[in-house]
Amino acid sequence: MEFYEAVQKRLSVRSYKPDPVPDDVLNRILEAGRLAPSAKNYQPWKFIVVKDPAVRQALVPACRGQASVGQAPVVICACCVIEQAWKGMGGYWSAEAVDVTIAVEHMILAATAEGLGTCWIGAFLEAEVRKVLAIPEGAKPIALTPLGYPARESRPNPRKPLSEIVCHDRYA
User: Fold this and answer.
1) DSSP-derived 3-state class of residue 70
2) What average pLDDT does the segment 114-126 reach?
3) Sign of the C-alpha dihedral, residues 60, 66, 67, 68?
4) Is 34 helix (H, G, I), strand (E, B) or coil?
């Protein structure tokens, strides 16, 4: 799939077939995350790949009841290793969430190109996700995504036109 086609086809999928994701496909998706840029090239991420059905089901309440987390054959939880994140973004804040977000988006677009569905999960209870996935104190879950073959076609949500979101030369 061509890049811009993947960008256009990427939709939030909330219903998945039980079909397993082949390891070579999963590894290509993870490789896309590994290759993502990060501040100072620190690469402050750790990706937890969850295939165990019991663990995926335990994540459902931790993800505020989002059933697709338990339904997809794979869930990826992207964490920031806090001590590895560059602390000088804008001169005063940490790059942890930005760096990990870029890596997750790379994986989401790679998954789309592979014919798989994903859904950015940002609505989760951090303490519960930590508990289920045994995430240590020095790491912070930033986002999760179910990963699998869509059970049905998703419909795109309306997008704002460029004229509403783009300024030239100064904020207007």
Assistant:
1) helix
2) 98
3) negative
4) helix
For the chain, count helices (H), then strands (E): 7, 4
Say if CB 45 and CB 79 are below 8 A apart: yes
The enclosing H or E element of 7 equals: helix 3-9
Separation of alpha carbons 80 and 65, rounded Å: 24
Q: How far, in Å, CA of 73 to CA of 146, rounded?
A: 8
CA distances in angstroms from 132 to 48, 63, 77, 116, 171, listed in the order given: 11, 11, 11, 25, 44
**CA gap 27, 15 in Å, rounded:** 22
Backbone φ, ψ for residue 76 (5° rounding): -110, 125
Q: How far apart are CA 89 and CA 67, in angstroms?
A: 36
* % pLDDT > 70, the chain: 100
Class in CATH terms, 3-9+19-150: alpha beta
pLDDT surpassing 90 at residue 154: no
Closest C-alpha to 152, from 20, 17, 60, 25: 17
Q: What residue spans define the domains of the chain?
A: 3-9+19-150
Does the predicted TM-score (pTM) go above 0.85? Answer: yes
